[in-house]
Write a structure and sequence with these properties.
It is a single chain. The chain is α/β, with parallel strands linked by helices. The chain is 36% helix and 20% strand. The protein has a seven-stranded mixed beta sheet, sandwiched between helices. A five-stranded mixed beta sheet has the order 8-9-12-10-11, sandwiched between helices. Strand 18, helix 16 and strand 19 form a beta-alpha-beta unit. Helix 13 runs parallel beside helix 14, helix 15 packs parallel to helix 16 and helix 18 runs parallel beside helix 19. The chain is globular.
Length: 564
Amino acid sequence: MSPTASNHLAVPAHGHVTFLGAGPGDPGLLTLRAVEALAGADVLIAEPEVLDVIRAHARAGVTVLDAASTRSPVGAPGQAADGASTAVGGPVLRDAANLVMEAARGGKRVVRAVPGDPGLDTDAAEEMLACASGGVPFEVVPGIATAVGVPAYAGVPLRDERGTDVRFVDARTASERCWTEVGASDGTLVVSATLETVAAAAGELVAAGRKPDTPLTVTVGGTTTRQRTWSATLGTIAQTLKQAKVLPAPDGSRPVIAVVGECSAAARRERLSWFESKPLFGWRVLVPRTKEQAASLSDQLRSYGAVPHEVPTIAVEPPRTPQQMERAVKGLVTGRYEWIAFTSVNAVKAVREKFEEYGLDARAFAGIKVAAVGEQTAAALVAFGVKPDLVPTGEQSAAGLLEDWPPYDPVFDPIDRVFLPRADIATETLVAGLIELGWEVDDVTAYRTVRASPPPAETREAIKGGGFDAVLFTSSSTVRNLVGIAGKPHNVTVIACIGPATAKTAEEHGLRVDVMAPEPSVHKLAAALADFGAARRDAAVEAGEHVTRPSERRPGARRRRVAP
């Protein structure tokens, strides 16, 4: 946490409460102030669905309390974000307001997070009053209101060029008088309801004077990759939902936002539906990498609307004989090498760890030329404090690096040796190419790659049963290892490969390759998958078919699909 945040969040000894709006569901909609407050919190109190949104921004060790459990027995443990249990005792059974005040009176920084905006949450208002009455200081961090954020993600602007009047109604608490008033209006109406009661709300509006052919949209799972929107009219929405075969929620309550009025006309929404029309919207994409390796790739997939699922297929371990690596690092410091070439992020990590072991830092690279294969490797070097002298201008591979690598020249190169820290299973392409260019190469095993442990049973079943829409294979080893630890992906799963060698290995394992990256880059691979998804979506729309994900084409999936 930055010093600025720490000073800003300083609180008196008796504690402090922040009532925080978590927005409509997309974690990316949290405000900067919300992230700052979460980073300084000692205690988080929220319902489970809200905790999923905010938890990533909390510090390790924060105590997390479930506000949905309004009856918490004496001494019931709260679960810390790092897995530790923290007892929060009390002499009586407590509701959320008591949990908030009890934690604050213990001198804690408390964040009470609610869906949407605290100003529109009646429970939050009651808890604020309880804090005010009890002398507990508090502040409010607004969030994007669900009734505003969801229509924006559904492609339904609430006002048009004529400045249409907008009114908001909560169908769960609306009185007969309220329905009569909004029914007489011709402006845009935003109704908070449930999937089970929205048709009844439409009937109330028709009974109050709205025309049955008034357009409306109904959105469930708004701002998340589970979002689904139906366009209909007040008179047809019941039939539309029935034909969609939407399963009822187990507790009879699935929140929706319905927008009534000309702004929600189907033809208009089709042109403005920017979120649900993303090329990989809702696709579950298997990324056979660790979270650390897959961070930027997963972010890219999310920008296409996908839900990435990282499954490491290899584990990195130290070399069996570390002496070779130790000698090479010492030679690096004593001037044995003209160049050092990094072919992976793991190689950078291995050398960095050796440096730290010897008390060295990036200054030890002074006078040595540094080469990197690929953007990710170069970024890892920059994070280490080293700017690469050579990165391939063309193909991001060993072959691409060789195309740009200068031949050894005894006039200009005082030393003819290259340090190449690599994996134990690396190919000989780079070594052979450098030798051909006149260089001597110290090919050193910096780390070993071994097959990772199998993923959880649920993930294995999803892989073999068609629960994933696509899988990205970034090397031949990821193909072999994934099949080895989890089984062969189902034939409905789209197989995307980073290059011809990887594709050949996939085919040898009986997989149909659907997508190939135009060049060996993980980001080009993700972009190629997005292009595939866009073409697939366009073909379905042109044929007048419902746009489905690949996993929805497997036997039995249609029945399960209708439960957003």
